[in-house]
Amino acid sequence: MAKLARLPGFDGMPSPQPGAGRAPRLRTRYYAFLSYSHQDKELADWLHRELEHFRVPHALAGKLTATGVVPRRLTPIFRDQHDLSAGDDLAVEIEAALAASQFLIVLCSPKAAKSRWMNLEIESFKRTRPEGCVLAAVAAGEPFASDVPGREEKESFPPALRYKYDRRGHRTAKRAEPLAADFRESGEGRRLAFLKLVAGMLGVGLDELVQREQTRHHRRLAIVAAASIAGMAVTSTLAVAAIQARDAAREQRRQAENLIAFMVGDLKDKLEPIGKLDVLEGVGSRVLAYYSKQNTSELTNEALTQRSRALSLMAEVAFSRGDSDVAARLYREAMAGTGETVRRKPDDAQAVYEHAQNVFYVGQIAEKNGDFATAEKFLREYQRLAVRMVALGPDNMKWRMEKQYADFDLGVLLYDQRRFTEAVAQFSSSLRTIEAISTADPTNKDYRVQTAESLTWLADALSALGRYDEAVAARQRDIAVLQGLFAATDDVDYRARLVPAQRTLAGLFIDRGQRDLGVNQLRLAARNADALITLEPDNAEWLSRGLTTHSDLAEQLLNQAKTQEAENETRLVCAAAGKLMTRDAKKPDYRRGLKSCLTLRAKLSLQSGAKEESLQFANRAAETARSVHTIDTVGDAYSVARAYWLIGNVHAAIGDSPAARSAWTRALAVMPAAAREEPDETALHAAILQRLGRAAEAAPLIRRLDQVGYKDTAFTTA
Questions:
Q1: Of 194, 217, 223, 221, whose CA–CA distance to 206 is shortest?
Q2: Same domain, residue pair 420 and 377
Q3: Least confident span in 51-60, 344-353, 360-369, 495-504
Q4: How far out from the chain centre does Cα 324 lie?
Q5: What would the DSSP string read from start to end of 469-527?
Q6: Distances (CA, A) of 209 to 57, 138, 199, 218, 566
Q7: Per-residue pLDDT tens for 294-311?
Q8: 312 and 178, same structural domain?
Q9: Are residues 274 and 344 in the same domain?
Q10: Residue 622: partners with Cβ closer than 8 Å, 6 or more residues away
Q11: Which residue from 244, 454, 553, 584 has the fewest beta carbons nearer than 10 Å?
């Protein structure tokens, strides 16, 4: 038979360049990042120009405010898709610019509210900073209009701007109240709105800027008045100290602890938004230096709490700098303090909450380091503390959400260890909690998103156990929630979540032998993915999801001998893989995409009779699979095994039986010996054993598949 026509995109693929995938090193720190929809470009141009030309009045420059030292100029300002260098990875450069920016200015309009790209920028910024440095410039529409039925199209705030984020980067149900300057003609007008925006960044009153043309005489009077007040304050303090000499020691301690409370409370909250890690570390060090001179066992409850907060603050700084060992040690020390507070006040829910946060972060760091035993110990303790919070305050939604987080986080940890039965129990508990909370507030979109997330993980865990009917039901509920959210809001984030949900439901149908239902779901998922990519062709996350979906669809079309359709889908897969690989050739997800392309090309070549070409692609697929290294070592091993399985099948088609047996033997060798196999992994295992003539060993695996209703014949017919 004639060889299959060559597909473009990978025959001449360049090898990864040295340093590919590294984030660009920004030499300057941006004063602000300006995020806007390109429909608002005219106002963005004006605002950018005014910000960079603005000169701070001399009376304000150098002043220390809640946002730091007032600069002389508000430069430089970073603009998305305006100040970008010729780097290969737009998303990485924007992430780096956001991380290096002191403020985020969001130009708000109905178009901006629907921009997924702007929403991602706000989310990225908020996940590392508290709310204080996100400022809204209203260009059109109405803030929070989506809360009023029938006025959703008027909404000008993107979703991430409307809600607060917690320390873990989770979006909460709490309404955010960003500083907003109204640039609309019916609002404050451009000039006043501009000055309001600048005042917010400088941390000064609006009047200070509006009246900046006042005479030097007035400024001098203000300085003299301020000095007089300060002198009076000092004189009054000395007089009081003299009168109350006998209480001096007690008063000094009270003042010191009040100052400490301010340092680890209000001051910390004001410094965190502007990324002053060194200053934050200095605050924590000074607090600890104060308490180091005192006997910890004799500290009051309040003092003990302040000391623990200082330790948690320093741990947070260490973790932000990538020093997980120091962070873990400091969190443990903070945990000892909050644990003592809980021992003294066992019925104080706030004390239990503060202790639980330290416990969680100790467990999280252990999990990131691959120490699952330690992570599980602390996540279970976090779960116990969350249950205690709910018992102390059953009507407090914050405590109930902590319970939901605790069940969910423990479930993810168990799932990653392939302890699927235990994971199902945790995800089920998480789902019950969030459903109960949603019942109390059915219009809360964040609760509905959390419901969908719990259903997602529950479906995956059930699928891994072969409990297909329950998994299908959970996935269908998940999809229904996401479709409802998308229909109600037209927010593309929900459409993006639908793609993997529909793709996974397709896999469940196929595993049950309902191939037509599976293919229909894959077509729906592909349609959603294509719509997203059309909207933002350079969105790497959407490209990756579309690649995976089209790859699954191509596989099923190949199994049905629909070669032409499979070839068309493969072209899409390879084009997306090539685009992603030029961005970061080392990223595991992108290399998996390349492997999918090569695997499909090998199978297409084999069906067309081009066996030698098929073998070349299969070998390249195996080489790519071997190059992927992630924390999921078991999943990576099965990926390599599938590649060797394909190589063996190609050799068998060529007629080279020894080479085929060698490839299948290698496939069996790389499969984890003690892994808890999912059904499709068990099917691969059984198929390899059968090809090697080890039917007796394959028999119990086949019985296991029969018991759970697994009917996909992809491996046995490949």
A1: 194
A2: no
A3: 51-60
A4: 19
A5: HHHHHHHHHHHHHHHHHHHHH--HHHHHHHHHHHHHHHHHHHHTT-HHHHHHHHHHHHH
A6: 8, 20, 7, 14, 65
A7: 555 555 667 667 777 777
A8: no
A9: yes
A10: 640, 643, 644, 646, 647
A11: 244
For the segment 2-26, the average pLDDT, to the nearest whole number, is 36
Question: Which residue is it, tokens 């009076």?
Answer: 232
Q: Is the distance from CB of 327 to CB of 284 less than 8 angstroms?
A: no
Give the separation between CA 448 and CA 480, rounded to whole angstroms: 11
Domain of 455 in residue numbering reads as 410-487
Task: Give Cα separations from 71 to 51, 64, 336, 632, 688 (angstroms).
Answer: 13, 10, 41, 47, 68
| Residue 47 neighbours by CB under 8 Å, 6+ apart | 34, 105, 107, 137, 183, 194
In a domain, 711, yes or no: no
Which of 82, 76, 81, 118 lies closest to 100 in space, CA to CA? 76
Annotate 637-685 with three-state secondary structure. Answer: HHHHHHHHHHHHHHHHHHCCHHHHHHHHHHHHHHCCCCCCCCHHHHHHH
Q: Could you tell me if 390 and 414 lie in one domain?
A: no
Q: Is 432 helix (H, G, I), strand (E, B) or coil?
A: helix
So what's the pLDDT on residue 326?
78
Q: Determine the Cα–Cα distance for residues 590 and 588; give it in Å rounded to an integer.
A: 5
Residue 550's closest CA among 588, 595, 597? 597
Give exposure, 113-132, as e/b (b: 16+ Cβ within 10 Å). Answer: bbbbbbbbbbbbbbbebbbb
d(CA 30, CA 98): 9
**302-308 contacts at long range (C-beta below 8 A, 24 or more positions apart):** 302/257, 302/261, 303/257, 304/337, 304/340, 304/341, 305/337, 305/338, 305/341, 305/351, 305/354, 306/257, 306/260, 306/261, 306/264, 307/337, 308/334, 308/335, 308/337, 308/338, 308/341, 308/354, 308/358
- In single-letter form, the type of residue at position 296 comes to T
- Give the Cα separation of 497 and 159 in Å (integer): 15
What pLDDT, in 10s, does the model give residues 482-525? 999 999 988 898 999 999 999 999 999 999 999 999 999 999 99
Number of domains in the chain: 3
Q: Is 185 part of any domain?
A: yes
Structure-token match 């350079």, residue found: 538
Classify residue 256: in a domain, yes or no: no
Q: 419, 453, 487 — which closes off a domain?
A: 487
Q: What is the residue-wise DSSP string for 370-406? A: T-HHHHHHHHHHHHHHHHHHHHH-TT-HHHHHHHHHH
Q: What is the pTM of this model?
A: 0.64
Same domain, yes or no, for 386 and 423?
no
Would 254 be classed as within a structural domain? Answer: no
Residue 271 shares a structural domain with residue 360? yes
> Could you report how far apart the first and last alpha carbons of the chain are, in Å?
19
Based on the fold, state whether residues 287 and 359 are members of the same structural domain: yes
In the numeric block, the tokens 């999943």 are attached to 635
Cα gap 171→169, rounded to integer Å: 6
- Pick from 630, 664, 671, 617: nearest CA to 7: 617
DSSP class of residue 267?
Answer: I
pLDDT at 287 over 80: no
Of the three residues 464, 487, 510, the one that is the final residue of a domain is: 487
CATH number of the structural domain spanning residue 333 = 1.25.40.10
The enclosing domain of 451 has a CATH number of 1.25.40
Q: According to the model, what pLDDT value does residue 245 have?
A: 43
| CB of 238 closer than 8 Å to CB of 251 | no
Spatial distance between the Cα atoms of 656 and 643, rounded to a whole number of angstroms: 17
**CA–CA dist 423, 409 (Å, integer):** 10
Q: Helix, strand, coil proportions of the chain in percent (round to 5)?
A: 70, 5, 25
Compute the distance between CA of residue 587 and CA of residue 91 in angstroms, rounded to an integer.
14
H/E stretch holding 65 reads: strand 64-65
The mean predicted confidence, pLDDT, of the chain is 82
Q: Are 208 and 71 in contact (CB under 8 A)?
A: no
